[in-house]
Amino acid sequence: MKISYILAFMLSIALLSCGNEHTANETQEESKPNPGAQVDAKMTNPNTSGRLSGEGEAGGENVDLSMTDPSVGGNEMMPSQMILENITSNQKLSTLAAALRKAGMVNTLNDTGPYTVFAPQNKAFEALPATVLDELMKTENKQRLQSILKNHVVTGKLTAADLKDGAILNTVGGEQLKVAKQGEKVMINGAEVVRPDALSENGVIHVIDKVLVTEQ
């Protein structure tokens, strides 16, 4: 009887030990990070190279024009950044940033250039006739959107001092822009430069108050 009691006691201890080890293993497995979750988180960060260069990305037609993600916008444009990075980091240019991605022009503005970009602020897009921007952002109108945006880009780095009154600028879209100066005010095809000379690694940005319409 004593031997049977001892054997039963030892068997119960062994079973209890195995159960504790199994529970510990389960706890360790549950605490391990999920690699898939990390990948998903990275892909949702607009500052990662995958998102920034994601031309034609899935769901592009439903781009949020407000770009309210706090990781985008609100930062200063800096000479050490590329043109596209500076546009993306400025909340007042968030609609332009979305349009450039939709038009597939990310790689162009990440190129060495240099380029001069006349960047319409958000209010300029809001001033367009109702539904115009919504139509341009549709996938079937990508080429039309791209043509319009290319006419805001000029090859070469032209600061405000280089923009002479009466000068004609040839855009990468094959159209021409006319410069007009009135004192310190600089106009590009009727759009006023409201913030000149935002220098970038591959060119310069001039923020304007209208979407450019080329003269016929």
UniProtKB/TrEMBL annotation:
**Which Pfam families does this UniProt record tie to the protein?**
Fasciclin
Q: Which PROSITE patterns match?
A: FAS1, PROKAR_LIPOPROTEIN
Start and end residues of each FAS1 domain: 80-212
Tell me yes or no: is Signal among this UniProt entry's keywords: yes
SMART domains in the record: FAS1
Disordered: where is this region? Answer: 24-64
Q: Which SUPFAM superfamilies match?
A: FAS1 domain (SSF82153)
The terms describing its cellular component in GO are: extracellular space
What are the record keywords, sorted?
Signal
Any keyword Acetylation?
Answer: no
Q: Which residues form the signal peptide?
A: 1-23
Q: Which domain of life is it from?
A: Bacteria
PANTHER family attached here? FI19380P1, PERIOSTIN-RELATED
The name under which this protein is listed is Fasciclin domain-containing protein
